[in-house]
Write a structure and sequence with these properties.
Layout: H1 2-8, H2 10-34, H3 44-70, H4 73-100, H5 109-134, E1 151-152, H6 154-157, H7 170-183, E2 190-191, H8 194-225
Antiparallel strand pairs: 1-2
Length: about 230
């Protein structure tokens, strides 16, 4: 079993599992907006897009799982980039959709607060994958000594006892995603490349809207209706 996992890339398998989790989180948002408490507050055209988006998510997940099982690492890496780009776009559309229905929302404030939490988790997971992709060695697990780092981790900044052969893993990028999501800024790892900086800028911007706009609006609605 371990040989099977190593041959197909354990890190790539983790990315596929994270994308399944992102899909589940975004499906919860889509249900709330399309069929749940927020459905009456969105135009009819939006509801047509929801089943299309759901079908595309399922297709991407099945393709990711199939490529991983077949050991097609290069193809899987390209599909990971395409799928994460789609999830990022879907997250932005979810943010826009929920910002549109903030007014007069007391009857659906609890659902909106749950959606804000789902979007916040999606934001953290989606961008943790982006950070893992852009920072060598990334999800490919092959040493890329000629490529510049995207992030300066403390373990990379200087000699530390027991960290001579240290290399970042997905948990390190998940931590970057978490701190950027809730602190709106880097904490232990500093972005070095323009790509990393722009990704953190976008994630922080989305998080500010989710936390201060959507979640704040839902809390105000709940307090106002109490």
């Amino acid at each position: 079993m371990m040989n099977f996992l190593r041959a197909r890339g354990t890190s790539l398998g983790v990315v596929v599992l994270v994308m399944w989790l992102v899909t589940a989180l975004q499906a919860g948002i889509s249900y709330s907006v399309g069929e749940g408490a927020l459905s009456n507050l969105e135009p009819g055209a939006f509801h047509v897009l929801i089943p299309v988006a759901f079908a595309l998510r399922i297709a991407l997940l099945l393709l990711l799982a199939l490529l991983w099982l077949l050991g097609r690492k290069r193809g899987l890496f390209l599909v990971i980039i395409a799928a994460n780009a789609y999830f990022t776009l879907a997250l932005l559309l979810d943010v826009i959709a929920l910002m549109r229905v903030l007014g007069g929302l007391r009857q659906a404030a609890a659902s909106l607060l749950i959606d804000a939490a789902l979007m916040s988790l999606s934001n953290m997971l989606i961008f943790s994958i982006w950070y893992w992709i852009v920072d060598p060695p990334g999800v490919e697990e092959d040493p890329l000594e000629d490529e510049p780092w995207a992030f300066l981790f403390p373990q990379r900044g200087g000699p530390l006892p027991h960290y001579e052969n240290w290399s970042p893993g997905y948990a390190d990028y998940l931590f970057i995603g978490f701190t950027t999501n809730f602190a709106f800024s880097p904490t232990d790892a500093l972005p070095l490349t323009r790509t990393a900086k722009m990704l953190m800028l976008v994630q922080s911007g989305i998080s500010v809207v989710i936390v201060t706009g959507i979640a704040g609006g839902a809390i105000n609605a709940l307090v106002g209706s109490a």
